[in-house]
Amino acid sequence: MKKVKKLLKDLSKSGKKGVAWLIDPEKGIDNRLRNFPELSALDLILVGGSYSAGEGLGDLIREVKSIVSGVPVCIFPGSQGQVSAEADALLFLSLISGRNPEYLIGQQVKAARQIHDSGLEVIPTAYILVNNGELHSVHSVSQTLPLLNSQVQLVSDTALAGKFLGLTCFFLDAGSGAVAPVSQEVIFEVKSLVKSPLIVGGGLDSPQKVKMALDAGADLVVLGNQVEKDPDFLKEILELKKAYNHLLEAN
Fold it and tell me: What is d(CA 17, CA 23) in angstroms, rounded to the nearest whole number?
């Protein structure tokens, strides 16, 4: 088993929690983060974005690896062009919360041969957009609407359908810059049903929101916008993760 899939499975099985940092290729790496020793405490680095076409992706991944050693780098593709053999793995996303065939299977078909030839570790991932009705870049690009936090059964049934289709990882995303993150009730219900690695991102801009996601069942939380605004936020959440996992070990 390759390293990112094993990482996710180990987190899910053990109950320990992980933290991922999402880097948008259009923004690159904030200079304030380049000398952060805490970066080595990350579990995963995701690279990708809704608007990026993929140019320079390999260069960015090489740059990331020169700054942070020992942390796997995984592509979080926003389009068929975001593929690079420089990464360690790729989340092979199917946007199952929407009904636009281009993001259910169309972009995936267009990228399949390149991904196959790249030798990347591929993680079949059910991608589900959930928030309180806000529309963000991912909704604009995918031409789909998010499911609502109030639609707990619909969200969980959607995740269950993804499980039955054979998807092995689940990503609940409120969208970049969301005011309201995915709700605790949604996270708990999805995790209870799928019993598979669960990634949660979008709107996690405070320690309280991150803790709520972890308490509800998220195995890996994804930080992005708030780290760009305040790099020290990343330190704070890594400390929270450390405390959370130490408490688990003590029990």
Answer: 20
